[in-house]
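Predict both folds.
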Amino acid sequence: MTKNKAASVTLDSTALATFPKPAMVIDSTGRVVAANEAAGGICEAMDQGQIPGINAAVGRALASRRSQSDVIMVPGTLGPMLYDVNVLPNTDGCALVLAKDVTLESNLRATLVESRQRYKDLVEISTDFAWELGDDGSFVFVSPRGALGHSADHLVGRKPADFITEQAGDDGLLPFVSEMPVEEAEVWMRRADGTVACLLVSSSPLLDADGRCRGSRGVCRDVTKERERDAALARANNRERLLNYIVRTIRDVVDPTDILGIAAKATARALGAAGCQIFRHDASQFIPAATFGKVSVAQSLLRQMPDAEIFEGVVDGRPALGSITRHHHDVNGSIVLWREAEDLPWGEDERAMLDDVANQIGIANEQIANHERILLLSRTDALTGLFNRRAFFEELARRFSRLARDRRPAALIYVDLDNF
């Protein structure tokens, strides 16, 4: 209960001296009447006029007859020091001033605020997104920028299971529900546009005082582009490996007439096809040159060849994939691959692979054509187109051997042209 009757308070000097914090008695003129040892620095600063705030607080307390509080800064050898000051007015025209050093608390508070702001800025500008799950396993916090095209408000209150795309052999919920810290677990989640994204999730469980899990907290990093680049590089390396196998197989063939047969076999095996056909182009038609495995009639596909580099279709219920072959931009053949009806459809990798193989087949077709031209020139007369002497006697011996084997008669007609 407040008493209206004024009372004079006398402060024992021993009590002032033994007070552990700065304590002073200041009169209405701002003069320090008494002070303990802990207030020495403050008194010195007051004498130099460096902290007028104390005198102002004392003046307000004496005028209002009410206690006053303030924060003052006192210069020190190690830097400014902050004090919480409480002023208690007395009836004798003096005031008791009690000060508390709050420099450490103030610095810690400022550091904490700065640290929180720093982390807040990092979270807001980072492409990664931070999250926290509550007791019920739903998001209670998501970075302000949101994630995967979803806004933060759309994610809060939802569960990770609403966005996770199941992958064979992977438990996508593991980093969100684990009671142990998880580092860079790979998870596939759906974006707002329906596409999937690959995330690396690091998380830590939130435990209460009894050690029970009350949620989790973590961060997700979108590595979809990295995974797509890795997959594309792996496919390119695989195509290069298969192409090298086909090219090496073709180059190891000694007889040019066997090249296309070996190439058809190697290509079918490399691309997982049930059969392969290679054609050569003569005038306006494609002529079968080599066949491996189980094939079908390719005429419907061959009719498409002049209009497209890569073409595909279904013939007799079997998916077929083909490509024309060129040498110096001139069409010199084609290659067609076949799969069984129950096999997987042709993919982008097979199309790219066939395009590379077609380039090699085009070179092989040209080599065979050159070989045939050289063989023809070596056996015929350039002027008449007839067999030369060596070819004539080789052909004569071959036919005599066949007639003798078959026991059939024959006639040899010799025509001599004069003056030719």
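Second protein follows, with its predicted structure tokens after the sequence.
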Amino acid sequence: MAVDGRTDVRAEGGLGPLWYVSYGSNLGRERFDCYLLGGSPVGSSHTNPGCRDASPPLAVRRVEVPHDAYFHGASPTWGGGVAFLDHHRHPRAGTLGRGYLIAAGQFADVLAQEGRRPTGGPLPPALAEAIATGRPCSTGTGWYDTVVPLGLLDGHPAVTFTAAWTRADVQEAPPSAAYRSVLEAGLVEAWGLTPAEAAAYVDERLPGSAGS
């Protein structure tokens, strides 16, 4: 289901459960659980500390993201480009995501782990600001330090994260075989695609392709 364009912040000033929407390697549940529970995902030598609250998601579902996905960078973990999301909405982008309904503190800890920062700190002001304004807001200059609001899904705010730059600012780079394998496996798991369909989805987003 696609998210709509409305936004909402809890009246009491705090944030209730929200949807963290993954469009990259966290499409796979086992990999995402390493962020919640702690541990080393397959293919990574880094050990995640886990979230302050290791409770499982309240719900998990498919989400179609109205932003274009692209590959950029030279990841020290994967050895090639990794997935990012353009800041500009594109209703026909067709980016396939997976939503995890989690506590705001859990999202803050997932965000911190992506940036290799300590977990358990206060909620980043950018999270509430992004939800309230409907605009991307940055917590820093790291690869995944910009919170992107995606509107409401089943009455809860939906958010993801990407880089502070926009797609037009950078040179795209293809993913490594290892990263591509993890991404395609996540698409098969989350969306029920066949391996061939998952491979075609990635191909359409490679630099220079007709769909990129």
